[in-house]
Amino acid sequence: MNDSKQENQHANSADSVKKRGRPKCFNEQQALEKAMMLFWQFGYEGTSISDLTQALNITAPSLYGTFGDKAALFEKCIEYYSEHEVQPAEKILQAGQTAKIAMELYLYDSIQHLVQTNKPKGCMVVVATMNCSQQNQTIQEQLKQRRAYTKTKIMDRLAIGVQNSEIESLAHAEQLTDFYMTLLQGMTIQARDGMALTQLQRMVSNAMKSWGLLAQGQISIDYELNPQ
């Protein structure tokens, strides 16, 4: 039975669960952590209602009565992930005395979370909706917006670098932002494929060597779509 049919089947019974209340032994935070781990490992569509009820040790009506539908639970899990598994980008970026140091700190902190022991590899905000079908495009768009928010925070910090003459122009800052965001998302996939932390650290170290080229105009920021 697919998730949409399960949701229809249990919609009415969820109301009765709300009236009766949850079992006294039920810990909502622990439940969110278990659900988060499933979504993080198998993705939104790869995690079924049956998977969730089994991991949380509750019935489907109890799940709906507590968290709403699967999409609502997923959203809560993303919030839980953001609060407990990663540091806010702006907090790390503000800690760097220069734009380069800020970017380096952010990258090194990020890869620590890509290969944690006893946890799924990669960034949940990147991997959880990579292969969603059309009916779940709204959920995919929500995570896209979260990634865009992080990119904006990086660009904001690098814009300060432009003001401080550390980066030649806003166009160069944008190029730096694109480069390092692409690197970070690529390292998420590499982490899923088994790349070790030491290898990821080497990638960051090598990528930071490109900073001067990208920040100070030592290479052109223009390019041709169809070079001759």
From TrEMBL:
SUPFAM superfamilies: Homeodomain-like, Tetracyclin repressor-like, C-terminal domain. It holds the Pfam family TetR_N. PANTHER family: HTH-TYPE TRANSCRIPTIONAL REGULATOR YJDC (PTHR47506:SF1), TRANSCRIPTIONAL REGULATORY PROTEIN (PTHR47506). One of its GO terms (molecular function) is DNA binding. Keywords: DNA-binding, Transcription, Transcription regulation. Residues 48-67 bind DNA. Residues 25-85 form the HTH tetR-type domain. Coiled coil: none annotated. Residues 1-21 are annotated as: Disordered. This is TetR family transcriptional regulator. It comes from the Bacteria.
